[in-house]
Amino acid sequence: MLISILIFLLIFSIIVIGHEFGHYAIARRNGIRVNEFDIGMGPTLFHKKKGDTDFCVKLLPVGGACVFDGYTGMSNEDTAKTGHPLDEHSFPNASVSARMATVLGGPLMNFVLGFVFAVIIVAFSGTDLPVVYRVQPGSAAEDAGIEAGDTITRINGERIHVYREVSLLSMVNYGEPLDIEYERNGEKTEITLTPRYDGEDNRYYIGLVGSGQYVRLNALQVFQYGFYEAEYWVRATFKSLGLIFRGHFHPDDLSGPVGIVKVVDDTYDAARPYGLPTLVLSFLNLTTLLSINLGIMNLLPLPALDGGRLVLLIAEAVRGKKLSPEKEGYITLGGVIALMVLMVFVLFNDISKFFR
Known about the structure:
Elements: H1 2-29, E1 34-50, E2 53-68, H2 79-82, H3 96-125, E3 127-129, E4 132-135, H4 140-144, E5 151-155, E6 158-159, H5 163-171, E7 178-184, E8 187-193, E9 196-198, E10 203-205, E11 208-210, E12 213-215, H6 219-245, H7 257-271, H8 276-298, H9 306-319, H10 325-353
Antiparallel strand pairs: 1-2, 3-12, 4-11, 5-6, 5-7, 7-8, 9-10
Helix pairs in contact: 1-3, 1-7, 1-8, 3-6, 3-8, 3-9, 5-6, 6-8, 7-8
């Protein structure tokens, strides 16, 4: 478990520092002054001033922060609070487009990191093409005429590139009909089938087992399928969020840091017997998921998240004037409180899983 905690801290630090670097890079590109860039949290162990920015290494190796001049993270500051005049390089006085770009820089970097990790994964492990390996007897797929060797090309209009996308759309299905396009001997066929409920597993199944074709990739395909790999995790995250709005949600579906440590520990136990290369690729896969997930979750239009800040900036652009620092602070504070309550709930939920 100690090794798993250390691996978790490494993974979490990579994706959070990458996120904050995205904010930093775009802010600097737009002339916004960054007062401090932190690696970790807590008391400062080491710092080095470079230009306007104080780069700090903190005691606790968890996360990081990017502190803009005139912006606390809760609201825009005024001159009285900062102790010095806010010039054109402070966050509040930058153009609304520059501030929007800076806010988007963090989630964008998470997507970039996810893509980079995905390219590394497919470069070494190849990819699973959406080829049917076997059709379950008596399944909806068999009745619809799908056979082993068929290549699934589209489901409900969504282009299918890897077999895991077929599995994903099956897992998030709750009995709704699926329009499936598949290719056999160069000919495309479109069918509609309704997944069948399995009472033992408490879910619906199409009846397909794949992939029947796992391939190594050349140099160009590595970037193509690296994109498809990252796209898969984007789809998986959005499909999971969609289940919440459809009412298919259970508190156990939420996981925080403790839950992720458990996932890291399970991944370590499962991959360790197969050697270091498998272990590294397994954790790169998990890091890809978490990085893309963090990027998407940060874009949700909730106060205290980047998406909430972006909504305020869009409102400012539409209104043609800024929201007062006090109102912005109250809105963000409300979001922070709600986020803290959720984090406490998730923490206790994660801990309780260890005793079930």
